[in-house]
Write a structure and sequence with these properties.
14 helices, alpha/beta, Nucleotidyltransferase, domain 5, 8-stranded mixed β-sheet, Rossmann fold, 7-stranded mixed β-sheet
Length: 430
């Protein structure tokens, strides 16, 4: 059995701590699992132990913060840097109001609060306190107005210098994180930013000694090009001109929380041939929740023989207890439905004949991902779906020679769930 790796503080984490200590606002950005969160959480614990004070770690969605920091990063940081701290009688987690009490070196205690900006109740609880440190985790998912409001609570008179930390996998260059920290401008204007800021690029290669063997080589290097540039190389990307989706739209989609599920479907855009030049078969699992929001779970697309993709569809139908398979039959006709029914005749299929072009079908779906001022996004991605998201941000209607089969499957599912355009003729097959 392989031994677990011993955590090692990296050079980039040392540099990150130096920047966080030297500047009022510090942005750590870069690729996946590069040690950004570890550096920020460690610095907050150090500051909390210096003198009685209050600190805040915040994320767009509180449940995501619980999973990523409270149940993952925080225990690892405590074990790696402060192994005796958790046995101190004053060290305790309040799971009612979600704050951690930390003993100070000279006596007394500090508090580290945890919060989300996804509900009015949680925002009200956050804004009820003043803090010496605020850390916005995955801040690309948090709107700039929420960030500026949080800054007003960086006002505790504890004797510590007031600090605001930020981290993110970088979104597009139009995002406020790039505008404020790299271009040094006030987002939404051409005015120079007045905050004392610094930023640091941290990538997985900088943290390789703390990562599982093969993570970079087998996982990150296998991502589509645009996703490699973001999650491995930590680059702020230019949006693809003409694409219907942007990185920021998908970042927001991954920050949303699903409600109670009301209906689940499997969207299918079948390929009718199976050779090296064939299109992929698009297979996307999605639901509608109590709030009228579409929830995207899985992208099961790929190049398959007919029996293989049909079996994948049937498996997903039962795994997610789906209500329908929404299947496009323009080219395959009844053979497409028969392929599914031959495996399991109990599967309920809605065969659709798509009369509109791909852009006309996709544009209404991309519109409900929008996160512009005054608009509420209506699609949630419960996890990272690299091939689907890469296709969404790179496909340019009327320009691309490749058929966007993953997008088509997504569009069929979401259109059925929350758009239901009457111009598409549907035939129900029981």
């Amino acid at each position: 059995m392989a031994k677990a790796k011993v955590f090692v503080k990296t050079y980039k984490q040392t540099l990150a701590c130096a920047l966080m200590n030297a500047h009022d606002h510090t942005m750590l950005y870069g690729g996946s699992r590069s040690g950004k969160t570890t550096a920020a959480v460690r610095n907050i614990l150090v500051r909390a132990m210096k003198t009685p004070s209050r600190h805040l770690i915040v994320r767009q969605c509180f449940n995501h913060l619980k999973q990523s920091i409270i149940h993952d990063t925080l225990p690892k940081v405590l074990k790696g840097f402060f192994p005796g701290l958790t046995s101190h009688p004053k060290f305790k987690m309040n799971k009612s109001d979600w704050f951690l009490t930390v003993p100070c070196i000279g006596g007394g205690t500090s508090e580290i609060w945890f919060g989300g900006t996804d509900t009015a109740e949680r925002i009200e609880k956050i804004l009820g306190n003043e803090y010496s440190t605020i850390y916005a985790n995955e801040c690309s998912q948090i709107e700039y107005d929420a960030i500026t409001t949080l800054r007003t609570r960086l006002a505790e008179n504890s004797g510590l210098e007031l600090k605001f930390y930020y981290d993110c996998n970088p979104p597009g260059k139009k995002h406020w994180t790039y505008v404020e920290f790299v271009e040094l401008l006030v987002p939404g204007s051409k005015d120079p930013s007045m905050i004392d800021s610094a930023y640091l690029l941290m990538n997985p290669d900088d943290n390789k000694q703390n990562l599982p063997d093969g993570y970079i080589e087998k996982i990150l290097n296998s991502l589509p090009k645009r996703q490699r540039e973001r999650y491995r190389d930590g680059l702020f990307l230019n949006d693809v001109e003409g694409a219907l989706w942007t990185d920021m739209m998908l970042s927001v989609a991954k920050s949303l929380e699903p409600g109670v599920i009301e209906e689940t479907v499997i969207g299918v855009d079948p390929a009718v041939t199976n050779n090296p030049n064939s299109d992929e078969t698009g297979i996307v699992v999605a639901s509608r929740d109590e709030f009228g929001q579409a929830i995207v779970y899985e992208d099961l697309s790929g190049k398959f023989r007919t029996k293989v993709w049909a079996q994948r569809v049937v498996n997903a139908y039962h795994k997610y207890n789906a209500n329908w398979v929404i299947c496009e039959v323009n080219q395959g006709g009844d053979l497409v439905v028969d392929a599914i029914k031959d495996i399991d005749s109990s599967v309920k299929v809605k065969a659709i004949h798509a009369s509109n072009g791909k852009f006309a079908r996709a544009e209404p779906v991309s519109a409900i991902y929008e996160c512009d001022e005054g608009q509420v996004p209506k699609v949630c991605h419960v996890k990272y779906l690299p091939e689907l998201e890469s296709e969404m941000t790179e496909w340019v209607p009327h320009n691309s020679k490749r058929s966007p089969n993953r997008i088509d499957a997504l569009v069929y599912a979401v259109t059925h769930l929350i758009i239901r355009k009457p111009r598409e003729r549907r035939v129900e097959v029981m």
